[in-house]
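Table 4 source record.
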Amino acid sequence: MIFFAIILLLSGGQLFAQGGGMAANGEFAFRALQSSFPNKISNIEFIDDDWTITAGGEIFYWAGGRILPVAERDNIDSYSPHSFYRIPSGATSPDSYAPQFIENMRRRGSGEARQQRPDSHRGIQAVLYGALERVEIEALLEEVQFLGKRIRLHRDIVPALRRVEAAIRRWNGGQAFIASLEHVYGYNWRQIAGTQRMSYHSWGLAVDILPKNLNGKTIYWQWERDRNNNEDWMLVPLENRWNPPTQVIEAFRQEGFIWGGLWPMYDNMHFEYRPELLEYTRLLAGESNTNEVSSNRDLHHIIPENLRLGNR
């Protein structure tokens, strides 16, 4: 997954903020984390003019969304904010994008801008997911069969993904959808393509699914930009993007996974485990938590040679 800079999109009356230090509500973000990971996070307090959370016996400050331990609290310029944003109900049509937003997306999609942005502080991830270093993380992985493919995933999300698959198979179109898939990828120790920031694949907390045939549609903004030399990758209409069926997206969401097709920098093959974002969205909406969420390689660097891309 993935940490973005702040992206504000005002569309259809809905504000979509991604990676929001300024846009995110620190108290709600911490309450969402506590609700999603109750065995790993305890106290939430307002200390020294900032919200704090106790995780793994250590106090972390909100620090403008950077979630920093005491020793790093004054080093906010060294880290990017963590991603906390309201999950939109569906992907936003690029027809609604303002010219300034389009230009901002072009700039943020450039190699230079992406490389310049630092990673977030990973102390909170160490608590939530049990490790930071590659050897330690790989000791927490489990090899499983998922949607007909063998992949490695963080052991904490294996039960949730088994429920995802069960829901897909119960759906009338589930068997046909599974048969349509060429690749399913999970763990991969790497940075987000073109950046300094670690991917959620590096913790085994993200899944990519790719069909045998895209039928001429695009699936990932960076492939569209690079393969078709398309600097207007953000303007590809929603109907020209490959989407998993709604039933599949919902099966993932019910278990705490966010679909990358909702992002302006769309990644329609990608699902990552972020139950705190779903809870954060509920808190912002003033809703009670009536829908509890449960506690190899990947595709982004190289387009698989055997993928039938159609005419695009």
